[in-house]
Amino acid sequence: QVQFVESGGGLVQPGGSLTLSCAASGLTLSSRAVGWFRQAPGKQREGVACISSRAGTTVYADSVKGRFTISRDDSQDTLYLLMNNLNPEDTAVYYCGSSLSGFYVPLDSSFFGSWGQGTQVTVSS
How many other C-beta atoms can be found within 10 angstroms of the C-beta atom of residue 26? Predict the structure, then answer.
């Protein structure tokens, strides 16, 4: 069973950039699909991006396409989320998780698990 620890969150100005990291233990990232999700107060947890351990196929939510980039470093079992051109709507707690089954799954939280504690991202002036 994989365990995740997210880090890198903080306060950033609108239009700024931030990179989140997710360190994995227990299983290597290459063994399954992994993804980033976020949840704002009063909102449902939504998928941000995911990447398959096979072929590195990526999927992004429409709201972050062209702004966010998901990547992984299998040698260090670390997942990254590069966030550019951040806006206040990106404010949320960001979580990483692994697919419950399969390598190609929908970008939906119900298909992922092993959530970490999350890291807070706040976009504000």
Answer: 12
